[in-house]
Description:
The strands form three sheets. Strands 2, 3, 4, 5, 8 and 10 form a six-stranded antiparallel sheet that branches. This protein has a four-stranded antiparallel sheet with strand order 1-9-6-7, with no helix packed on it. It has five helices and twelve strands. The protein is an alpha+beta fold. The protein is rod-shaped, with a radius of gyration of 46 Å. Strand 3 and strand 4 (153-159) form a beta hairpin. Pfam families: TRAF-mep_MATH. One of its GO terms (biological process) is regulation of canonical NF-kappaB signal transduction.
Amino acid sequence: MYDSLNQMHQQILSILCIIRSSNNSNVNDNRILGAISTLLNSTKNLNDDIHRINRESGHYQHPISIEAKQWSIFEKLAQKIDGCIRGVEINQNLLYQQLLLLKERVENAQSTSSDGAFMWKITNFEEKTMNAKFEQYKSIDSPPFYSSQTGYKICLGLFLNGDNNTQDTHMSLYLVIMQANYDAILSWPLKLKITFNLLNQLSSENSHTVSFWSKTTSSSFQRPTTDMNIAYRISKFFPLNVFQQNKDQFVRDDALFIKVETDFLTKMPEISLNDDANELLNDKEYTSTTDDNLCFKICHADTT
C-alpha cells in the first residue's frame, strides 16, 4: 500500500508538470487525460487494497476480541478461586483451633480423678512462665478432680511467678472447693489432709512435698453456695531460686507435674502442719485464669 501511495504521488506531480509546461493544448489535454485515467485506476486499486486490509483486520480483531473476553472471564474466575482458597484456609485454621480445644477437653476429662489423687501435668511450661512474669496470665488452672465418685469437687491454681505477696520469690499454689452434685450428702465443713508433690522427674525421692490440714473455721472449706469457694493458698509453695537451680530435674520436655493426694482417714491434729497456708481474703480484685471452661477466679488480695 505504501508503494501505491508513492506511485500516486508521482503521477500527480507529473500532471502538474504537464499543466505548467502546457503550450499545445490538444497534446497536453491528451496527456493530462491519460495521466488522470492512470491515477483513477491507481486510486481504485488503492481503495481495493484498503477494503481488503479492513476485511482482514476485521477477521483478526474478532479473535482478539474473543480472547480479550475470555481473558476477562479467566481473571474473574481466578479471583473467585483465590477467594475460595482463602476462605478454605480460614475455615481450616478455625477447625484446627477447635480440634486443639476438643483435644484439650478430652485430655482434661481423661485426667479427671475420682479417687482423691490427681496428677496435674502443666505443659508449655516456658511459655506459661513468661506469661506469668509479664502478667499476661498470672495464674493457670488445673482440671477439676473428685475425692471420690460422689465426693468433693476440687481444683487447683498455680502462680508460677508468685502471687501478690511472693512475686518473683516463690511459686504460689491455690486450692478451691467447687460446687458439685453430691454436696448435700457430704460432711461440712470439709475435714481432710492435703498433700502436694512437685515431682522431681529424675529422682522421685527428691520431690518437693507440702502437706496441710483444712481449717474448719475457714470459708474456703464450707459447703459452696456459688460455683466455687474462696481459694485457699500456700503462698510460699516453692522458692523460685531453689527451683531455678534444679529446674532440669523438675521440668522435662517443657512439662511440670504436681501430684495431689487427699486423706480423709488420718485424724486431724490440733495445730496445722503448715503455717504458710492461709485463706485468701475475699477482695474485689480478681485474676482470670487461662481456661475458659473452668469457672475459676482467684481473689487477689494481701493477707497478714
